[in-house]
Structure formats: C-alpha cells, structure tokens
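tool_call: predict_structure(chain=1)
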Amino acid sequence: MLDLEKIGSFIQERRKLKGLTQLELANVLHVTDRAISKWECGRSMPDSSIMLDLCKVLEISVNELLTGEVLEMNDYSKQAEMNLLEAVKNKEESDRMLLRMEILIGIIAIIIGITPIFVAAFVSTLETWQRVLLIVGGFLMFIPLILVALRIEQKAGYYECQECHHRYVPTFWQALMAPHAGRSRKMKCPHCGKRNYHKKVISKE
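tool_result:
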C-alpha cells in the first residue's frame, strides 16, 4: 500500500522548499488549501487529474511523489516498477469493491421494483389508478438503479473474449445492448472481431 503519511510529509517538504504556503500552492493547482492540508496530513492523495501539475510545481516526478522521496537514478526504475504494481493492485481491489456494490444495488433495485407490484396485486382496497401508479412508480425507480449497476459493471475490470482472450472495456451502450448471462455479455471482440460471450474479469492480464 502507498504510505500516505510519507507522501504527505514529502509534499509538505517540497512545498516549503519552493517557498510556497498551502494557500499559494492551492491557488496554483485550483484546489482549496484544505485539500493541500489533507494531502500533507496523509488523509488523502492528490487526484490523478492534478498529479502532474503538482509534480511540475514541486519539481519532482510522479514516481517520486508516489514513493514519498527524491530517488537516485539507479533506484528510479526499480521503484517505478513497484509503484506501477501497487497502482494495479489498488485498481483491482477498487474494482472488486465496485462489483460487490453492483450486487447490492441490484438487490435493492429488485426489492424496490417488486414491492409496489406486490402491493398492487394483493391489496384489495386499492383503486385501479392506484395500482397503476404503484406499478409505474416501481418501474421508474427500478430502471435508474439497474442502469447504475450496469455502469459499475461496465467500468470495473475488463471483459475477456473467449476466442482470443483479449481483455477490454466496452462502451456503456455496447454493454447495455448485449445479451447477458450473469456478468458474461455477448459482444464483438475489438481484437479478433468474433462475437461470443465475454466474461467479466478483474485484471488486465
């Protein structure tokens, strides 16, 4: 795991070396000084979208930022490889958590969708318009949740072609329109061009 406290102390050290206050650094990066404080206290990491700008201001590499120290040239390649492996591990764990969340959202969507239909079917005191309203309301709540769950599945991890074993991330539309069985979806492989059921996997290789 990345040592957030070490990285935070390194950011603080480099900021002071450049003669910048937290507010001045925040203004350069278009973030709040509170965000800078969180980084330096080891409570969070700079977002990837501003990491390059931060490194440019502090005159360090991304590799040095993730390591939390200035690296000698002979240690650079080895540490770069270790940081890359750590980033891959973090992404894989994040994807696993997202896929577990997808299951939870799917269960909630089913409960929300079925409950109004059950009430409409078995509560005899309801008027026809009330039954229709319940069914339509359940449907309208069910669809957005299912789309959120599908978006998570599409983005987390990769789909693997069963012919050439190429792994890729399809577009949301491709995932939405593909026939599926569980987390396997029938799509056209962008590598070999064959259409078959592509299984959801976590790692790129």
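agent: The radius of gyration is 24 Å. Proceeding to next step.
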